[in-house]
Specification:
The chain has one domain: 3-Layer(aba) Sandwich (UDP-N-acetylmuramoyl-L-alanine:D-glutamate ligase), CATH 3.40.1190. It has 13 helices and nine strands. It has a nine-stranded mixed beta sheet, sandwiched between helices. Helix 7 links the parallel strand 4 and strand 5. The longest helix is centred in the C-terminal third of the chain and has 24 residues. The N and C termini lie far apart (38 Å). It binds ligand NAX and adenosine-5'-triphosphate. InterPro entries: CARKD, Ribokinase-like. Belongs to the NnrD/CARKD family. It is an enzyme of class 4 (lyase). This is ATP-dependent (S)-NAD(P)H-hydrate dehydratase.
């Protein structure tokens, strides 16, 4: 069955509430998609990058993540991303946000370290001393589109290009890229996580890897979110990976933030795992299936009333079931 037809049928099943088993069975038959053996291989590699919980580990060794986002309108998005990174297993999360968002985000969770710097005219100066300690940055959740903030983020991305800090670009950071894609082109190890609309704004109807590579260069991975998440890997394998559809038809806000936070932790681990040759691919796959499983599980309990917080609550259980070492 061609992928477009599969998606349409799967979409119908989701909309009609007959959720995931039949869709996953169809995905296994989908010749354009990911075979069971590729799925199994990626799952095994995802499990292999998860660090063992040893008593001699120091705080921070299992991941120090930065979330760059949070504005007067959007305080939930950086919280969702940050807390998801922690719930997957990162040790420390720093949120770099606008002054107006800082107290609000702190009040959601004492587990997040919050820096009110993003709209400061010395933002880079204030962030710089933290950046080198971080393994991965998620840039964009709840960032907003204020000119001064976007200018600071552009400076941050230039800094990351020089210092080699790995970045995940999501939400409003993708809007920034529509204004100036050179900020991300060939940015080594960067991962872009556009939803359907963001993908169209960035790349139009471009779906072929060769055409995409013309735009992004050879060092950037794209995870296009949708019913079936697509991982465009131009860095090593030169393939598109279709993650099997899953989850429910409930599309509450914040699921992309959960995904980007989870992705940051998996990416940090995969980068740190000497055996893993394609950290971005493995991390994208892991974050994608985790998010879809969390959605499915939360939907089972909360149905139409499912919120992003309900999905985040499911992370430990889903992680233990699919990724934990025993
Ligand atoms: N609680 C919060 O603070 C949240 C804040 N958010 C933030 O809100 C800001 C704006 O994000 P938006 O996503 O609204 O971006 P945009 O303002 O660019 O709007 C994109 C539009 O596309 C629509 N869309 C999304 N997926 C689609 C699909 N598959 N097909 C058709 N239409 C689709 C959305 O409904 C939205 O109207 C970002 O900073 C984001 O991080 C979101 O993450 C949601 C939660
Ligand atoms: N039609 C769909 N059916 C099932 N799952 C979907 C569908 N669209 C997106 N998803 C899943 O939801 C997750 C987030 O994607 P989504 O498109 O909602 O991101 P987003 O718009 O960036 O989210 P946010 O609300 O955080 O900004 C992804 O894991 C994706 O697989």
């Amino acid at each position: 069955m061609p992928f477009a037809v599969l998606s349409k049928r799967a979409g119908f099943l989701l909309a009609s509430g007959r959720v995931s088993r039949s869709i996953q069975a169809m995905a296994r038959r989908n010749s354009a998609g990911m075979s069971d053996s590729v799925y199994g291989d990626l799952l095994e590699r995802a499990r292999a990058v998860v660090p063992r919980l040893e008593t001699n580990l120091h705080k921070g060794q299992a991941g120090r993540i930065g979330i760059v986002g949070g504005s007067v309108e959007y305080t939930g998005a950086p919280y969702f991303a940050g807390i998801s990174a922690l719930r997957v297993g990162a040790d420390l999360v720093h949120v770099f946000c606008c002054q107006s968002a800082a107290m609000v985000i702190k009040s959601y969770s004492p587990d997040l370290i919050v820096h009110p710097v993003l709209d400061d005219h010395c933002a880079m100066e204030k962030m710089e001393k933290w950046l080198d300690r971080l393994h991965v940055l998620v840039v964009g959740p709840g960032l907003g589109r204020e000119h001064a903030v976007l200018e600071n983020v552009a400076a941050l991305l230039k800094h990351c290009r020089h210092s080699g800090i790995k970045v995940i670009l999501d939400a409003d950071a993708l809007h920034l890229l529509t204004l100036d894609f050179s900020l991300a082109r060939d940015l080594s190890g960067a991962i872009l996580t556009p939803n359907a609309v963001e993908y169209r704004r960035l790349f139009g109807e471009t779906k072929s890897l060769n055409d995409l590579r013309e735009i992004i260069g050879k060092e950037v991975t794209v995870l296009e979110k949708g019913l079936s998440d697509k991982i465009y890997d131009v860095t090593l394998t030169n393939q598109v990976y279709y993650v099997p559809p899953g989850g429910s038809a409930r599309r509450c806000g914040g699921q992309g933030d959960l995904l980007s936070g989870a992705l940051a932790t998996f990416y940090c681990w995969a980068l740190n795992c000497k055996q893993e040759t394609n950290p971005a691919l493995v991390a994208c796959f892991a974050a994608s299936i985790l998010t879809k499983h969390c959605n499915e599980e939360a939907f089972r309990e909360k149905g139409r009333g499912t919120l992003c917080c309900d999905m985040i609550e499911q992370i430990p259980k889903i992680f233990r079931k699919h990724f934990e070492h025993f």
